[in-house]
Structure formats: C-alpha cells, structure tokens
Amino acid sequence: MIANILRAETAEKHKELESLMFVNEIMNNSLSTEAYKKLLTINYIIHQKLENKLANMLDADLAEKLQMNDRLKLSSLEKDLQYWGIDNLTLPALNFELFVPEKNVAAVLGALYVLEGATLGGNVIKKHILANPNFQGAEDGLNYYGVYGEELGSKWKTFVSILNESVPEADYEACVNSANETFDNLIKLSKQLG
C-alpha cells in the first residue's frame, strides 16, 4: 500500500520539517505570535503556488472522488493572514526553484499527500495554540489549522483510500519522489524565511 510506503519514505523529511516548524513550541504552549505568522506565511506561499495547479492536474473523476473543492485551503490561509495583518502582496519571492510535479496521477497525489498530511495535526495544533496565553481570544486567526473541523479523520481516511487505489505499484517511486520534493519545498521555504 502506497500510503504506508510514503509514510516510511518521507519520515526523514517530515522530521526535518517539524524541527523547522516550531513543533516543540506549539506542543509546550510557548509559540510566539511572530513564529505563528511565519508558519502561516510558509503554508500560504506553498498553497498559493501549488494548490490550484495540483487540483487542475487531476482528471475530473479523481478530483470529484477526492472532493477536491472541499480540500482547498488557500481561502482559510488568506483569512488568517488578514486576521494577523500580513499583506500577501508583500511576501518574499522564493529563492529556490519550486518543485511542481508533472501531470501524472501518482506524482500529483504524492504532492497532495504532503499538503493533506499537514492538516492532520491541525486540530491538535489548534488546541495547543488556543491553550497558549499568547493566543487568547485569537480563534478567528486559526482557520487553517481547524480547516476540516470534525471531518478531519474521515477526510484523511478517504484521501488515503483513494491514494492507495489510484497509484499502481509501477508508479510508487514517482509518488514517493514527488512527496519528498514537496517536503523540500516547505523545508527550503522555512529556511529562507528563518
């Protein structure tokens, strides 16, 4: 099953990204609002550059099966930027070449695996951020991390199930490479904005 292979083969990149994305500060409720703004900016830039491209690369049947329209997170990120006073027109340009997968189901799903997986911890992250004194009363600025609300678990299960049935073994490598390259986009941007 490709989902298990992806988890194993991207574990190193996932760990590196977590170390750059303030996971410890989130979990021990000490995240600063400046660090949170950086997280939002990273997620916004990557979603702004990839989300629609990836959605448009899927054929109509697969996009419908995935309910892609309900998975787009850019508007939630835009609300958060607005709440925190971040002007999305003045964000820095990338100082690296963004990886965009070729139009191939396995590669596109590999990239989406990373973007979807990023929301998996969203409810836990949101709970920790709200428990942090720096964020008292700031629930309106946490749209991205609560994007799926109660549907989080079911949306992830659906994604994994479609991923597993849509990627043939011959395309496992393309899927894994795309996921790792997408993690690299996030890692490089985290370092650039660091």
Level-2 CATH architecture: Up-down Bundle
What is the level 1 CATH name? Mainly Alpha
Order of helices and strands: HHHHHHHHHH
CATH topology: Heme Oxygenase, Chain A
Poorly predicted runs are none
Helix content: 55-70%
Q: Judging from the principal axes of the Cα atoms, what is the shape?
A: globular
Q: Biggest β-sheet: count, sense, barrel? A: none
What's the number of structural domains? 1
Overall pLDDT confidence:
96
GO molecular function: heme oxygenase (decyclizing) activity
InterPro entries: Haem_Oase-like, Haem_Oase-like_multi-hlx
GO biological process, one term: heme oxidation
Protein name: Heme oxygenase
Verbal overview:
The chain contains ten helices and no strands. The radius of gyration is 16 Å and the shape is globular. It is 66% helix and 0% strand. It has a single domain, classed as Heme oxygenase-like (Heme Oxygenase, Chain A), CATH 1.20.910.10. It has 194 residues and is an all-alpha fold. Helix 4 packs antiparallel against helix 6, helix 4 packs antiparallel against helix 7 and helix 7 crosses helix 10. The model has no long low-confidence stretch (mean pLDDT 96). The N and C termini lie far apart (36 Å). GO terms for molecular function: heme oxygenase (decyclizing) activity. It holds the Pfam family Heme_oxygenase. InterPro entries: Haem_Oase-like, Haem_Oase-like_multi-hlx. It comes from Pedobacter paludis. This is Heme oxygenase.
